[in-house]
Backbone:
């Protein structure tokens, strides 16, 4: 019995999780200290994560609030799946919640959380993750580097977590493309509850698979120079199965750079964008760009214009088979735009087989723009199901060849004209089972089209639910209709799908 008990005890010790060590860093510390207590804290994060440090997988490194100037951290330590390495900022007591309440307009404050200050926004890297695995960063501020946080390992299974990080002021403002707050060229990472303000080139950039960007905000109001304004705010580039959720981007003012809000470029497929908002982007609030941008989904994403010439959703350079579900565009010059540039080989096709369903566009000068920028190619095979186009000048602007595009189960109201045609191009567009009301043009011909008051609940306040007795109830077609409406309720609720973004329910 004693032998069995001894074997069981030994097995338990071997199988038990490793008891982690705790290390401490403060601005009053010294790298010659042991680092094992607040009184014997280290001085630099660089020392704690260097290869010679005693820190190992499963340990926690607590970093006290204060100014950590001039550090360029190269991470040479990793955790494991069961024992992540945690680097966590705190305010007064190790492990406390420093209260990350930073938002646009706040300046870095070293008394609230650890502040990494590079001192020169044109030089260096704040944190070089260096291919580290299972490392978690919580509660930090980073400012005045060329790069804030970067990882160019091109590897999967990094499992890095960036949580509650405030990153501001990056990039050489005399350079054409300098300044990146977060750039992760690796897979399986999480960027959560981070705030980026004024990175001249890129806010948050991921290139890899299965990354999650969640509850992040990215702003730019930088007028330091003509090259200071941010280019890409949140971008997934050459990556699959990434998720961007509950994120907000805003270009503040009429900046020299038109800006790109949230979207995908390159060979980026099966990525998901959920409940995101992009405000005041002249180039594109949301975008799918290049032939490899396919099978991406945008759901409950919202584009809003502020200054003149804003654009909502853009499909360009051959992007295809993407879905935009229950999205909104308001107060833009162009609601949805198709264009083709020379970026992805040029002279190919503009965009095809993309689907917009349950989308609501209000007070946009042009609803759908087949724009002539830059290559003269076709836009074809795109569909608009159960959408609402309310209030504008032109429903469809035609500046390129187009065919096999269709609008089904949609409501169009308050537009002055159906189309504008230029460059010798003509609109070829199929309209069916759609309601055209209070427009400056007659209803286009097509099966099931009619011209009657859709009887919205309150169109002036953007409530496009249907009233009882609406002529749009049960008069749509099931052919191509989405299985849910804008609210996520099943469609149809009656004998046939309703026309418009909402399925009527008593």
Residues:
């Amino acid at each position: 019995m004693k032998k069995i008990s001894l074997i069981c005890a030994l097995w338990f010790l071997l199988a038990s999780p490793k008891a982690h060590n705790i290390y401490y860093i403060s601005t009053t510390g010294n790298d010659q200290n042991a680092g094992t207590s607040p009184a014997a804290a280290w001085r630099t994060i660089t020392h704690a994560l260097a290869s010679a440090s005693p820190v190992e997988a499963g340990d926690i490194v607590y970093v006290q609030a204060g100014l950590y100037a001039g550090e360029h951290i190269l991470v040479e330590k990793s955790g494991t799946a069961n024992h992540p390495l945690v680097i966590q900022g705190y305010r007064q007591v190790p492990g406390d919640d420093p209260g990350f309440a930073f938002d646009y307009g706040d300046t870095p404050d070293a008394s609230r959380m650890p502040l990494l200050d590079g001192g020169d926004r044109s030089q260096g890297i704040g944190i070089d993750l260096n291919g580290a695995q299972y490392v978690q960063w919580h509660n930090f501020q980073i400012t005045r580097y060329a790069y804030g946080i970067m990882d160019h390992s091109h590897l999967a299974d990094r499992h890095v977590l960036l949580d509650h990080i405030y990153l501001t002021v990056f990039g050489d403002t005399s350079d054409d493309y300098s300044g990146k707050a977060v750039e992760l060229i690796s897979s399986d990472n999480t960027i959560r509850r981070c705030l980026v303000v004024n990175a001249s080139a890129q806010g948050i950039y991921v290139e890899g698979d299965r990354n999650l960007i969640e509850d992040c905000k990215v702003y730019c109001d930088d007028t330091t120079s003509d090259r200071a304004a941010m280019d890409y705010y949140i971008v997934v580039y050459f990556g699959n199965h990434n998720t961007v959720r509950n994120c907000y981007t805003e270009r503040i003012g009429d900046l020299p750079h038109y800006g790109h809000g949230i979207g995908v470029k390159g060979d980026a497929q099966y990525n998901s964008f959920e409940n995101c908002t992009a405000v005041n982007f002249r180039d594109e609030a949301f975008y799918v760009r290049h032939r490899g941008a396919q099978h991406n989904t945008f759901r409950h994403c919202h584009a809003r214009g502020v200054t003149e010439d804003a654009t909502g959703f853009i499909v360009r350079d051959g992007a295809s088979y993407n879905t935009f579900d229950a999205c909104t565009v308001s107060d833009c010059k162009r609601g949805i735009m198709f264009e083709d540039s020379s970026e992805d080989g040029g002279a190919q096709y503009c965009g095809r087989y993309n689907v917009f369903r349950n989308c609501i566009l209000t007070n946009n000068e042009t609803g759908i723009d087949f724009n002539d920028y830059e290559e003269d190619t076709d836009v074809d095979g795109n569909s608009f199901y159960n959408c609402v186009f309310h209030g504008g000048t032109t429903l469809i602007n035609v500046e390129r060849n187009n065919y096999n595009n269709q609008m089904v189960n949609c409501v169009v109201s308050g537009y002055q004209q159906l189309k504008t045609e230029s460059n010798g191009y003509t609109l070829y567009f199929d309209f069916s089972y759609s309601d055209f009301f209070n427009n400056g043009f007659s209803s286009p011909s097509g099966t099931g089209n009619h011209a009657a008051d859709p009887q919205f609940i309150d169109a002036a306040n953007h409530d496009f639910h249907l009233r009882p007795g609406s002529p749009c109830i049960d008069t749509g077609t099931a052919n191509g209709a989405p299985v849910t409406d804008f609210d996520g309720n099943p469609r149809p609720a009656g004998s046939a799908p309703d026309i418009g973004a909402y399925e009527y329910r008593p």
In short: Confidence is low (pLDDT under 50) at residues 1-17. The helical segments are 2-15, 45-48.
